[in-house]
Amino acid sequence: MEEINNKADLHGNALRLLAIRTPGSMKSTLSGKSSPRNSAPYRRLHTNRTPRKDSKAYSSKFDYLRGNRVVLWLLLITLWAYIGFHVQSKWAHGDHRKAELIGYKSKAGSADKMESTVTAENFNHSSGENLVVLKGKNLTSKNLGHTLAKKLKEVSSKQKQNTTKKSNRRLVRRLRKLGGKPKGAVVEDRTGVLEVGLIPRKNTSYGMIVGPFGKTEDSILGWSTDKRRGTCDRKGEFARFVWSRSFVLIFHELSMTGAPLSMMELATELLSCGGTVSAIVLSMKGGLITELDRRGIRVLRDRARFSFRTAMKADLIIAGSAVCSSWIDQYLAHFPAGSSKIIWWIMENRREYFDRSKGILSRVKMLTFLSESQSKQWLTWCEEEHIHLTTQPMIVPLSLNDELAFVTGIPCSLNTPAFSAESMLEKRNILRAAVRKEMGLGDNDMLVMSLSSINPTKGQRLFLESGLLVAEHNVSLEVFEKNRSFAENFPVVTHQNKTIITVELNSSRISQSIKQDNVQQGNTTSAASKKRRWKHTKLANILSSGNHTSNSLTRGDQRKLRNLLSDSKGQEEQHLKILIGSLGSKSNKVLYVKSILRLLSQHSNLSKLVLWTPATTRVASLYAAADVYVINAQGLGETFGRVTIEAMAFGLPVLGTDAGGTREIVEHKVTGLLHPVGWQGIQVLGQNIQYLLSNPSARNEMGMLGRKKVQEKYLKNHMYNRFAKVLAKCMKIK
User: Fold this and answer.
1) Which residues cross the membrane (predicted)?
2) 64-89: string of b/e by CB count within 10 Å (b at 16+)?
């Protein structure tokens, strides 16, 4: 029995020893090897403490940084450098308050230049006490005294000088060239950005500067371009070609002239029709960058390799000026196969632009022009230089945008039940009366307007010399009297000058002129205008009661008629006013502006008639207030003249040069009057101004015919239908 118990104890001890061994020690036991008694594995095996976890398997993620001090120092240096650059950039851009919170002070606030530091937080306006930190001491006083007030002014003036010193250099330089000093007038450019001190509100050389009238437009019309832009015609051919395609548009500059504005509206239409647009701007000259950003047009800052890569990926490249030849040449040198995707929409018509671009005219896919005269001129130059074009050029004239068509009362995509075409006509008449009142114009003033960059090619000086002839009564209307067919349509009626006064007592014509006069001035509330409309109505009743001739009227009616005509003779006389724009434009020529100012200073009669307006995109109010538009382009004439169709859409007769695109748009003696270019046109332009000044009925009738022509040929859908044909020849249809 004892032997059995001993065997059981031995068997139990053996099992307990086997249970104590770990799996790792089992291998050594099976292999016949055993660990020495003093070795580390033996001590770990026979110890009663809990074994430690493996450091490699359970190491923290920060152990690497603790063991690598070089990496830790690099991270600290990077963080310190980032904070330093951030503070420096804030200080360099004039944000001194944020920099001072971190511990940096601006130059204007340094201790070596000022004895005291006055901050906005040190003023307690509620208690009327001012806390001033002066040399480390806090002083509380109700009266700062003259010394501390002087210090405060010095601090604010130095801060303003430091933050705006660089931005004002260019403005001061331009003011010196123009010969005027800033008087704090606020000027709005065509993008809506305000610049202070650029143009004086009133100057002895300029005279009166009016506008812009953006706030007046918004208050009267109840609508602005910020609320909604033109929508695409999804059913048209243009939208079918543009949808899901990518385009790159090349702007030669961002000035407020015809080419950049047309390219900007093209980009807006491409985006509206579902395309992707990237703009490459060769020169940031001008102020349209904010307008491009507002419309969601992406502008590429790089004009080299990055722009080339973007153009290579695009479906089509559209260059909007002959000045883009430099970029096209570099792009084709970088990517010769890209010539099959370039449409060159040339908007200039001078030989200097042809000479700079003639080397690559035959390397692009398609040339596009604005008018027939421009196309013929460029093809003639190509024949002289033996240049063979790959395809026949196409013509895509400009159009009236939806924003202006909406204000004029022409049906467009912006019309809604609340803003119908009829309601916009009424609002336009209210806008006309309000703007003319702000300009200081009366009911008998005829405003002749010319809006363009001021340079010799636009002919503003020649236009003013024609106005001088009218102001000094040195114009004769014998030419119009000799032309019988023209005189029958538009009889000559003048007051207080040397020409013969002829009055045609035709009831239908007088009633038509009365109706037009009531539409044009129906919103004026002056006593003189009410009295004149009452006399017009009475005159029409007298003529309608007889047989429409002066001999068939009774003696009483003849006496009343003579009294009405004699009373209205002085009131119906029209006075000339001239509006010139656009001041502050980047395309103005300083020397040419100075020559105009010298002309005005020499003739006080002319300077009293001239008004000036700054450059602005809010031109609807100016067109609404005007009566006649003059486009006096010289040389080969205007390439197209977008302002011409804009003026015609507002019902204004156009007086233009008999050259270029103006000859194609303006029909002589129908929608306006044409005159020769150069000095020969001064006398003829003066006669045309005097004729329209003396004949309001002819002025209104020409304006209505011009408006009708715009509706038939120069609306947005007309332009993009032509552009769709260009895309059909240049793009691969999916």
Assistant:
1) 70-87
2) eeeeeeeeeeeeeeeeeeeeeeebee
